[in-house]
Structures are given as C-alpha cells and as structure tokens.
Amino acid sequence: MTAQQDERRRYFRVSDLIGVRYRLLSSNETELAVQAQPSSLKGVLSQMDGQIAIALASLKKYNAEIHTLLDLYNQKINLVIGHGLAGIDEVEAEPMRACQVNLSACGISFPSPDFATLNQHVEIELNLYQSNVNLRLIAAVIACEDYLDEVNKNTHLIRANFVNISDTDQELLIQYVIKRQAQQLNEQREPDN
C-alpha cells in the first residue's frame, strides 16, 4: 500500500453539501502558497471558529440549552463578521457556490467546470454550512476526471489532497466529518422508525 493510499484511509469521509470557492494556482504561485501559514484575519477567525466548535461539542453533552444558545450567538457573530469582511482580503473573482463534495481531513473531491493537471495546486475556500465555519486551504490535485453535470455546467471532478494543513484546521475537519456522518446516519434511520 502506498503512502497516499494509507493517508486516504486514515480519515473518515463524508459526502455533503458545502460552500466552495476555488482558484487554480499558477506554477509561480504554488511555492508561495504551499509555504504560507494562515495569517489573514479570515484565517485567524477560522481557527477560532474551530476551537469554538470543539468546545461547543463537548458542552452539548452537559447542557444542550446552553450549547444551542452559544451556537446561535456564534452564528450571529459569524454573519456580522462575514458581511463586514467581504472584500477585505482580496476581491473574489468567483462567488462561493453550494456544491456536493466528498470531504475528509486530508482531502476533497468536487465537481468543476475547469480542468486541472496532476499535482497542480488549488486554493480552496470552504464554508461548512452545518458548522458555520469557513476554511481556506491549499490542495494538490491527485486526479481530474470527466464528469457530466449539465445543470451546473461542470465537466470535471477534481480530487485533491490538502497540503500544509494546520493541526487546528485538520481537527476541525475531523470533527465536522464525524458530526455529519452521525447526522446522516440518524436521518437514514428516522424513516425506518
């Protein structure tokens, strides 16, 4: 088994609807992007959201009402910050779009109208709707396959592994995937009851 196959199997995966915005990087941008650490205001806020999500998950075990209240306040603050920060880091060429993806703590696959080459790097911004968390990550393309989605005009399915992901962002993804898997399993069981 190769190291890449081993990495794929270390984390759970989930298919989910999330917000996605991405940009294929040129070879000149790749080296800088891979070496960069999250330092933008959005990056710092995203890391804080990850810590809040972890704390809220443990609080839920003890008091569901307080958990719900604090989660609502966090969502409200994120909405206010989101509107206030629009365009601060950079002008976004592409709007974020809702997209069905396959996600794990080590990678993602998502439909795209663009072709990506093997090992090309992609800057990806994710909005995890169920946790109201935004992440900005760099990923390396491991495959780009033909894909037909006439409604959304997607012609390719891009598969990519996250590169230089922080421990905080990876932990946030692990928690999110586990939470979504549990929710999806509960939704599947409810019709049976």
**Mean of pLDDT:** 80
Structural class: alpha+beta
Q: What are the low-pLDDT stretches, counting only 5+ consecutive residues below 50?
A: 86-92
Fourth-tier CATH superfamily name: predicted glycosyltransferase like domains
Radius of gyration: 17 Å
Report helical residue fraction.
40-55%
Q: Write down the secondary-structure element order.
A: HEHHHEEEEEH
Shape: globular
Q: What this model shows, in words?
A:
- This protein has 193 residues and is an alpha+beta fold.
- The protein has one domain: predicted glycosyltransferase like domains (Thrombin, subunit H, Beta Barrel), CATH 2.40.10.220.
- It is built from five helices and six strands; from the N terminus they run αβαααβββββα.
- It has a six-stranded antiparallel beta barrel.
- Strand 2 (97-103) and strand 3 form a beta hairpin.
- Helix 3 (41-60) packs antiparallel against helix 4 (64-85).
- The longest helix has 23 residues, at 167-189.
- The chain starts with a helix and ends with a helix.
- Mean pLDDT is 80; it is low at 86-92.
